[in-house]
Structure formats: C-alpha cells, structure tokens
Amino acid sequence: MAGRHYDTDELQLIVILRNRGLSIPAVARELGRTSSGIQGALRARGWVDPARSRSMRSARVFSAEQREALRQFVRSWAGGHTPSDIRDEWNREAITKTWPVVNNGRVLYYLRELGLQKTKKMYMQFESYRSRQSAAQKTRRAKEQEALRRVLRIRRDEIYACEPDLARRKCAICGETWPLTKQFFRNAGGSAKYFLKRCRFCDRGLGGSAAERCKLRMDAYDRHVIVKQISAARAERDAFLRKHRNFPTRRCSCCHETWELVPERYPRYRSAAGGELYRRTCRFCLRTSARLKERAKTVADRISITTVEGDQAARRSANREGRMEWCVQ
C-alpha cells in the first residue's frame, strides 16, 4: 500500500504504537504499510527519536574494502561455526584493527548472500551451539526455580499462620526452614514416614543421573555417620572412661579404635562351649561393611537388569530384521 496518504487516525495509531516501544517494521505490519513508508511519515513530521537519531549518526559505515573483508571472513568461517561464533571472532579482530563491529543480522545476511546458511538441525551439531543453549537453559531454569521458590515462601508463611505448631526442618544445603511435609521435602527411600534432609529444590538441583544423585546421597550419609554418630560415640566413651577408669575395653580389629566392652559397642555371639563372647569388630565397622555390601549388590542387580534388557532389545531387533528379510524374499 505504498504511496497512499496517511489519514489522522493512522498517524495517531503510529504515535501510540511507537510510544509502546514497537519497532518500525512491527508498526508497518500492524498498519499494512511498508517500513520505508512509516519512516518517511515520521521523518516528514519530525517525530524521530533524537536519541536514536544520534546513535544512528554515530554508527560506523563499512567501506568497500571492509565489506569485502567481512564477506571473505564469513566465507572462511562458515564451515564449522555458528553465526554467533563468526560475529564474536570478527568483533575481536575488528577491535584490534579499529574496524566496525557486526551483529548476528549482518552475519546472517552475508551467509544467505553466499549460500552458506545452514539449517537449525545442522547448527545443533556444533559444540558451541550446544554449550550456548545449555547455558541459556540453565539460566532460564534458575529463573523459573527462583520464581517457584518465591511462591512457596508465600505458601510457607500462610501455612505457619494457620498451623504454628507444624513440624519444620532446615534444609542441609540451602539452609532455609520449610514445613516438614511432602510439598517441601521428598520421602527418604521407599519410606513414607521419613523425609530427606534436603528440600525439593536442592534435591532437584543436584543434577546428574539418578545413579549419580544416589551416590551423592550415600556419600552424605557416610559423612553424617562419621561426623555425627561416631564423634558422639567417642565423646560418650571418653566421658564414661573418665568416671570408670578400670572398665574393660577392646580395640577394634578393623578401625583400631578402642571402645568400651559393652553390647552397645561390640555384638556378642554364642561360642561352641555355650558361653557368650564379644566380637573383635565394633558395631560401627560391621554396619559400614554391611552397608557397602548392600550397595554393591544393588549396583550389580542394576547392571544385570540393564544387561538383560539390552539382550532382550537386541533379540527383538534381530527378530524384526529377520521378519523383514523374510517378507522381502
């Protein structure tokens, strides 16, 4: 519709849309006009943004030599790099040469002109593209989690106002205190009675595969046993032995730690003669050994299940291929 005069309603609509922050191409699409027509109407009536005009006047124009150099640069870098990589590399060199910098739009223009622009599927094969998308995805997820955390903080305050005596727990990672409910804490293992010491946000943010998260939980439990349980047992032992200096003790054959000779420290067993004797290994070492054996058995079971599933999938695939060959024959 270029060449048609602008009436009062269209001019008012242009002013409204520009005040809302719409670009000239967006205004042109809204009115069914061309971008050059909208620019001409703004310029004729003096409705041009002074700040934008100053920034456009300060923009550096490429010379013929620089345009040819950029064209050759894009041609040489188009093989295994994304437009963003080409832009960043050109701008780094342009700063040293005091040449004009470029944006993605200019790089894409030359790629299209040279017939070297690739599809999105091809760009996804590049490592730089995947790393940039991964960083953007992490940023987006962090913003989403922070927004969700703000909502749940409001929900937490509402719950505390309604149920002030509700049980609470402090997350071991983020340090925030939340109501001890399924909305804020996951259940520990397969039990519906116990909860993890990490809130749902921190448990979800651990990252990695399910096996890696399981290993992190196991390591955290081992540290808890060493720091809390064994340290507390040592303190109790020292206080007890200070009061009972002649009380019998025994040195563990595994950890070489000296403990009181009581059933709480060393389990008892029945000998062949019928009497009861204390074992040479303390309960802490026995529990650690049993825990490690159970974990090794779990890993072995998972590997065997994965192997069986892989064999079954291979047999199904072979059967399908055999049926297809039979149908072809």
Describe the structure.
With 329 residues, the chain is mainly alpha-helical. The chain contains 12 helices and 8 strands. Among the domains are: 8-58; 64-125, no CATH class; 130-204, no CATH class. It has a two-stranded antiparallel sheet. The radius of gyration is 36 Å and the shape is elongated.
Descriptors:
329 residues, mainly alpha, two-stranded antiparallel ribbon, two-stranded antiparallel sheet
Structure in a nutshell:
The protein has 329 residues and is mainly α. It has helices spanning 8-19, 24-31, 35-44, 50-58, 64-77, 83-97, 104-114, 120-123, 127-162, 200-204, 210-243, 283-328; strands at residues 168-170, 177-179, 185-187, 195-199, 249-251, 258-260, 268-270, 276-278.
Fold topology:
Layout (H helix, E strand, L loop, with lengths): L7 H12 L4 H8 L3 H10 L5 H9 L5 H14 L5 H15 L6 H11 L5 H4 L3 H36 L5 E3 L6 E3 L5 E3 L7 E5 H5 L5 H34 L5 E3 L6 E3 L7 E3 L5 E3 L4 H46 L1
Antiparallel strand pairs: 1-2, 3-4, 5-6, 7-8
